[in-house]
């Protein structure tokens, strides 16, 4: 039986995990915000830059979240 793609999420007090499973039961995507949040708080992330065009200034407000 083909169920298509399945999405699962787990929202905890300090973390959120999101999984996407393929119709064959493989994990297609896994996203955990704890890792990213900890890297930012501990200053261990890679140096990055954010460039936007004039029509997308609202993205600059989102970078603060």
From TrEMBL:
It holds the Pfam family Hydant_A_N. GO terms for molecular function: 5-oxoprolinase (ATP-hydrolyzing) activity. This is Hydantoinase/oxoprolinase N-terminal domain-containing protein. One of its GO terms (cellular component) is cytosol. PANTHER family: 5-OXOPROLINASE RELATED, HYPOTHETICAL 5-OXOPROLINASE (EUROFUNG)-RELATED. Residues 30-64 form the Hydantoinase/oxoprolinase N-terminal domain. One of its GO terms (biological process) is glutathione metabolic process. InterPro entries: Hydant_A_N, Oxoprolinase-like. It comes from the Eukaryota.
